[in-house]
Amino acid sequence: MDRRPAPLYGAYPSDAAEIIGQHLASGLAARRDSSPVTVFFRADDIGVPSAAFSRMIALFQEKQAPLCLAVVPAWLTQNRWTAIGEICDREAPLWCWHQHGWAHRNHQKTGKKSEFGTARPGARIRADLSRGKERLQNIMGAAFSAYFTPPWNRCCPEALKALKDLDFRGLSRSRDSQPQSRTLQEMMINVDLHTRKEPDSAGCLAGLAAEIEQAARSGSIGIMLHHQRMNEQAFVLLDELLDMVVLQPLVKPVTFKDLFPSD
Ligand SMILES: [Zn+2]
User: What global pTM score does this model have?
Assistant: First the structure.
């Protein structure tokens, strides 16, 4: 797993939060209707407790900001789930524990990485989704919610069909993911905090600020987190970003469960 912080957090501009705040405000101001803009935070690659994981959880608890957590079934054990219970109330409405890829493994021989792509037969895809759900339900009990985040934000039509058959309520991928699902609710990510591809700090900040403005204008902000790649500066920015959205009356922090309840 790549644990390097994105360049933004290496040469961190002191006015990063201010610039992001300005772009958030511009996006909100450009909206035509006055209904609140929803924002969800989605933390990927969950299952192994660590210092960074504890710190991320503590920050969301302190701000009382909700967080959707995509858990890798093969990584989560009963002991690890118990350890997570020692740092937070796992059944609090703040959290939406849901399913990530079975083992977070790429199965594509060529092209973009995917665990649930076209390289594998549908039966194998279905089996991994099914055993993942069963394992998380067994370990987490009522704390588990049947939503799915595919690794690398992508999955094939067979996976979409299997998710529907397995009674998942929705899935979370990147904006403009294809194919779209006609039967499952989609909770789109449109802001990437920690796995940005720009080669330098200024490029990262410009890209991030533009994503936030565009997302706010669209009425629905979905922010992706990767705690394994967070350094001190990444925690500083997340702290400030949480303040911005929690204190901003035009923005409503939610989880998948608030957006698409089961009943
Ligand atoms: Zn992942």
Answer: 0.96
CB 33 within 8 A of CB 221: no
CA 41 to chain centre: 6
Q: How far is the CA of 28 from the centre of ligand 1 (A)?
A: 29
What dotted CATH number matches 7-259?
3.20.20.370
Q: Tell me which residue has tokens 């973009």.
A: 112
3-state SS assignment for residue 222: strand
- Separation of alpha carbons 54 and 62, rounded Å: 12
CA 200 to ligand 1 centroid distance, Å: 23
Tokens of 22: 């300005």
Range scoring the smallest mean pLDDT among 171-180, 193-202, 223-232: 171-180
Give me Rg for the CA atoms of the chain.
Answer: 18
